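*** Residues and shapes ***
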Amino acid sequence: MSERAGSSEAQGTRPGAAVPGDDLQVFLKALTSGTRQRLFAHFLDGEELTVGEVAERAGLGPSTTSEHLAVLRRGGLLQSTRSGKLVRYRADREGIAELLGQLHSYLLAPSEPQDPPLRRSARA
């Protein structure tokens, strides 16, 4: 088990409960920021954009935009291609579909049955 995942006791989960894989955790982390969600929305129509174009549309500085786009790329939401000095980003539809499939499997994975509730004594 990876150190990031930790033990089930340390994280308060039931023994045997599934833990998302590293790729899925990075994907979910990329989506936790409202700023990154707004930046990702610029790619929903399939457009390829540079950092400068996204920064201008979003009203953010280029370095801040670049950092957020890098997190989205590591999270599997964006792909990038270099053309000379320019880096163009676009939505990674196949990667997103794969990660959503992993999320679906994780959320619907069968868990081990829990202990039945304690019965109350008839004398109580």
